[in-house]
Amino acid sequence: MSGIAAQVAAPAVATGWQERRATSAVGGPTSRLESLLDPVFVAEAGWDPTTRVLFLPHDHPQLGWPACRSAGCLSPVTAGQPRCARCRAEIPAGEAAHHDRPAGPQARPCQVAACTRQRRWVTAPYCRPHRDRWRAYRTAQADPDEQRWRRTEPAIEDGGQVSLRGLPPLVVAQILYGLQQRTRHGTVTRPVLLRQVVVGLRRGQVSSIEDPAAQLATDPAKVVSSFVRHVRRAFLDPESERVKDVWDLTAFGWRGRLDFTTISQRWLREAAKRWAADDLPHRRGKDGAGPVRAYVASLAAWSQSLRAVRPDRGNNPAALGRADVEGFLHRLAYLESVGRLSNDARIRHCRQLRHVLGRMRALGLTRAGAPAGGLGEDVTLGRGDVPEAPVPAEPGRDLPAEVMRQLCAHLPVLEHDISCRELRVAIELIMDSGRRPDEVDLEQLAPAERAETDHAVEVVRGHRTVMLGMPRTHPTLSGTSTERTA
Ligand SMILES: [Zn+2]
Ligand SMILES: [Zn+2]
Q1: Smaller CB count within 10 Å for the chain: N or C?
Q2: How remote is the CA of residue 136 from the centroid of ligand 2, in Å?
Q3: How far apart are CA 78 and CA 85, in angstroms?
Q4: 129 CA distance to ligand 2 centroid (A)?
């Protein structure tokens, strides 16, 4: 599409994006990205869909820019300068309409695609600054291409303005979405930088920021790379991710990756993926993928044991039997006896393998034709196969002072990074009362406290596994753990 055509025709992104938000969950990549734009962010960034210009506020923490401090003046200043040149020279304010927003639909738009100004007069193609720029360009070039110049020439932008005119609707949506995600992650993108990116993209006449030419056309390229990363994530979906051996969990709504390559047997790896795809949507809390990783680690430990012991390296599920489970249990016992595995980790591996093998059966993965097809009924762990946790003597049931200190220090991490407010309240309550989750007696609390903690205790009851697994799975709490991995 030609930039000029886009300017004259109704701008697709401009007029339609809000109406399309509701209906465009499916459809082309442009509408997909538009559907992911948060109206709050779009307003915050000062996006004007009619003119297709961003009016970034000068006081925005990530998108702001240095503005003149004189009353009524918002002209950009070089960093460190309190007032703009115009104010320093005390030019009357009447002169200075220099940061006015352009009026809506234009009667006589300047023919430069990026420009928001009016032509000087009906017969002149350009606004005054662009007329001057065109004259300079025409003189400097041996063979000036006016149509191309119109498509690629930057706008005349005031402080905080970034014109996305002259870019295809897809690129506009990619920039807005990329900017939204960067800003949500707390990354600073100054208007100067964004403008440079847009100028580069326009000059390269790219149809998508994923076009390799987009990287070459823009300097610095790292902003475009981060836009590309965010845009790609918007298109990840569980269906295409679950065939891979390493999952980007963003597709499932979680952070980080889930690596199945530690499981060497093809059938077991596929079964693990099918189980994980079923399990992930049921997880809650901020690190819902953490427990799933722990289960996969237990499967990997079993996988390693099969590979080490069996002549077929465990590659044929139908050939496995009870002996392969017992072999694994003995191996764990041995690792604990030589100090390469903690008693905790040994118990956890057993519990987790027991759970996953049970779920795999329930999901039909052991039926003929399924990944674990032919896996015998005896390849399972009974309750008796899980070692008993040692019951500590009564005084030992108190958490050691060092653990309490770590727990207190990490309460904000618990609330903000790992779980939620309710879990923090619940843990504080348990710490204060010295009771266990099931022993907290709501009736003994004052009604006001009860209201706050009632829900919290529910959360704890519902999340006990998450909570119990937490101190060992989160790296910042690893100081509390004596675990050594095998
Ligand atoms: Zn000023
Ligand atoms: Zn112009």
Answers
A1: N
A2: 14
A3: 10
A4: 6
Neighbour-count burial of 295, counting CB atoms closer than 10 A to its CB (0-12 exposed, 13-18 middle, 19+ buried): buried
Whole-angstrom CA distances from 100 to 72, 118, 199, 371 are: 12, 13, 22, 65
- Note the ligand closest to the C-alpha atom of 134: 2
The confidence score (pLDDT) of residue 306 equals 96
- Which of 258, 254, 274, 255 has the alpha carbon at shortest distance from 266? 274
- Angle, helices 289-309/464-473, rounded to nearest 10 degrees: 70
**Residue 411, amino acid:** L
Which residues, other chains included, contact 7 with Cβ-Cβ below 8 Å and sequence gap of 6+?
109, 113, 165, 166
d(CA 473, CA 294): 8
Cα(158) to centroid(ligand 1), Å: 12
* Pair 164, 53: CB distance under 8 Å: yes
Measured CA to CA, the distance from residue 294 to residue 351 in angstroms comes to 11
CA of 84 from ligand 1 middle (Å) equals 4
Mean pLDDT of 392-397: 59
Contact in structure between 383 and 355 (CB atoms under 8 Å): no
Q: Running DSSP on this structure, what letter comes out for residue 141?
A: -
CA of 150 to the centre of ligand 2 (A): 9
Q: Say if residue 476's pLDDT is above 50.
A: no
Q: In angstroms, what is the span from residue 102 Cα to ligand 1's centroid?
A: 19
Alpha-carbon distance of 83 to 81, in angstroms, equals: 6
Ligand nearest to the CA of 102: 2
Cα separation, 248 vs 185, in Å, equals 18
Q: Are 375 and 318 in contact (CB under 8 A)?
A: yes
User: Is residue 435 predicted with pLDDT exceeding 70?
Assistant: no
Which ligand is located closest to the Cα atom of residue 93?
1
How many Å lie between the centroid of ligand 1 and the Cα of residue 45? 22
Distance 68 CA to ligand 1 centre (A): 5
Compute, in angstroms, the gap from residue 2 CA to the centroid of ligand 2.
17
